[in-house]
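ESCALATION

Customer reports they have been waiting on this structure for their group meeting. Please prioritize. Original submission:
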Amino acid sequence: MNRLYFLPIFSLIAACQLDAEHSILPNTPEVAPTTISAIPAPPGYERVAARDSFTIWLRRLPLKNDNRVYLYNGELKENQSAQFAVVDIPVGRKNLQQCADAIIRLRTEYFLHSGKEDKIIFTATDGTALSFPAWRKGTRYRLSGNRLVTYVTQQTTTDKRVDLEKFLEIVFAYCGTISLHKEMRQISIEEMQPGDVLIKGGSPGHAMIIIDMAVNTSGQKLFMLAQGYMPAQDMHVVKNPIDARLCPWYQIDNTGVIDTPEWSFSVKDLRRWR
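Update from on-call: job pushed to the front of the queue and completed.
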């Protein structure tokens, strides 16, 4: 099996401050990409074949015209140098949807879009299963001591979106990098596919999703990363702070370290939903 070599990347839109002579991708595209799939693969590379409908769904994620990252309260994020493109998904109005939560949001929206609401279930840090199907039937969760307990209420609505947002507030409050790390299984870097996650469980920890991948005829693979961050903010495709030539695609080098604008991972941090 071909070894993957990864190196992080900078931005294609306005942010790649590169000497055009040394850049593989254009610094200023004539038309800003409107979806993940509209971000071009470098010359000689093609997107990997979709292994499942989640990969296809991720590639269709819309990107915002305004390439600025806003916080949950409407203020601009102080660091505006990390993003290549901003994903157009809800962030909410509370400081809840951070890094692991943004990944939970993607998984939830995919299941909702695909008619798989029964799969919208996450495990809280204390091990409690948080179920959207149960929530729709009146199950609620509250903290008792240091454990979550369930109770039943009649406070349901016919508006699925309203119910979902209320449910996700609970999920975001009681799930995080520690719980997601436990929910996922470790995989090798050779197994990496779109939808997999780089995650370091902890307080603080961090998590980023492999939003897309590309491959050349030699089997060398590239990937793009997207993240939410603290405080809660727009999810965004990140640049590469180390090697901007492939903007915004990453490779892996022989160090096994993946440096991103605001976090560093090891190839051992790669995980997949069970």
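Sent to customer with the following note: Residues 99-113 form the longest helix (15 residues).
Escalation resolved.
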